[in-house]
Every structure is written in structure tokens, then in C-alpha cells.
Amino acid sequence: MRLLVQLIKTMEHDLGYDLAEALEREDLSREDLKALRQPPVEGVPATITDKQLACFLDACDKNIDETRKVLKIYYEARKNGPELFNNRDPHSAAIQQCLQNQDYFPLPPTPSGYSVVFHRLKNSRSSNYHFDEAIKTYFMTIDSCLYTQGPRPGIIFLFDMKNVGLMHLTRINMSSVRKFFHYLQDGLPAKLKAIHVMNVVSFFDKILYIIKPFIHAEILNVLYLHTSSANLDSFYEEWIPKSGLPSDLGGDMKSIDELHQDHLKEFERLRPYFLAEERQRNGEAGNLIDEPTDRMLKSLSID
Fold it and tell me: Which of the four, 103, 230, 235, 270, has the lowest number of CB atoms within 10 Å?
């Protein structure tokens, strides 16, 4: 009975999307998921689930060898960046401070099936911006999107620079910038299709000067800048329709503030997942299994 309780506790780190639906939608194979487990990838928890693996497999276009490389990078990046990936309790004072001063939420998948993650500063006061915690909360928002939407043909990052000022640049931690882009470009369990920056500021060239050394050329090729006066008709048509955007950006959905408030409830709901994922990553969940937990539970006999 204790083993069953421990196994169920371990399953809290699993994602919440429908695996069967995602495998069919993305044309992924359960045999490929099985192939990713043997031989074990160094640094990857034995408790990793099929739902977790499916995101990596889809991101790597079903290439087993490439998927294994990305899995290794993903866990190494999280291990080597504790300031960005540990202490992810949504109840913590640091994360609550971010959620009070910034807006974060996923948007509905686009007609092309892409996930979308939105981020904006809620106010322009630079003293309210804590760079490492902001990145941590952003990564948690990406994880919440993967938790719900699962593997997709790609992911779009949508940033609104409306409240960004020059003083925010003084809050940047260069070591964290490097880790941020290393994870997004090399370890993310999703295909980065585009980065759209709305209400781009006049000093964006200074921001680009800071981040350019850490960005791959292919990422610069999918970076799109939109000024506050830009005509967004082509953006709505090619990338995200009005039906999938906040009203603040000319969309038909709720306002940014309302969508953020809704996502706060989602963060609260996912608190057990964030805590369990960190335990899994740091070895506290135990190396209980070498096969998916759901199959293990089906064959488990209780004394």
C-alpha cells in the first residue's frame, strides 16, 4: 500500500493533457516513446512519463537521437540554473511579487495549432522588476501551457513592451540572459516558431545589443517587431487571429488584466505539479520506475 501511495505521489509531476489525443494529432508513436527510455539518458529521471516524453519527441520532429540530446540539455539546464528553475512554489513571496507586477498567461492554440505564451509588465516601475524571478515565472507559464495543451506543431512567444523603460535594462542579469536563451533554444520541449514583440520601444536596439550574443541566427530570423502604430492585419491573418488575442491588442478576448487574473487561478491549481516536478528533477521522487507509471500501476498488486 505504501508503494501505491508513493507511486501516486510520483504521478503528480505528470502533465494534464490527453495523451491519446495528442499522439494521434501529432502523429507520434508509443514505440518511439518506449525507445527513448533505453538506454536511459544521463540525468533524466527514471520517473519521466510518456506525456513528458511526447513533448520532447514532437519538438524534435520524432528524431530519437535528437530527442535524447534535448532531454539531456533540458535537465542539465534546470540543474545548472537553480535561480531560474528551483523554488517554484506559486505561493512564495517572490513569485507572488512577479504575478502582482507582471502579466503572464497562455492563449488558445492558433488555427495552425501553435501554442502562444503572453508576457507583459503590468506597470512601468523598474524597482518592481526582479529579473531572475521574472524569468522563473515566465518559464512556469510555459510549463503551464505544456501541461494543458501538450505537444503542438510549435509555440509562439508574444511580448508586449508597453511598460518597458530604459531603467529596466539596469535590472538585467547577464548570466541569466545566457541561461534563458540556452534553455529556450536548445532545451525547450517545444518548437519555437516565432517571437512577436508588440509596442516595441524606441531603444530596442539597446536590448538587442545585450541579447544578440546569446541568440542563434535562426531565432533572429523569427523575431518580429511591431510598433504601437503598426498595421496588424497581416499578423492577425498569418499568426494569431483576433479571436485568440486580448482586447488590448485588438483581439476579441478579455483584457490582458482579466486573462492574467484567470491564469492566477490556473497557477494555484497547478501548484502540486510545480512542487512535484521539482522533486522529480532533484531526485526526491525516487527512481521507482523504468516504464510509464500508468502501466506500472495497472500491474501493481496491493498486499
Answer: 230
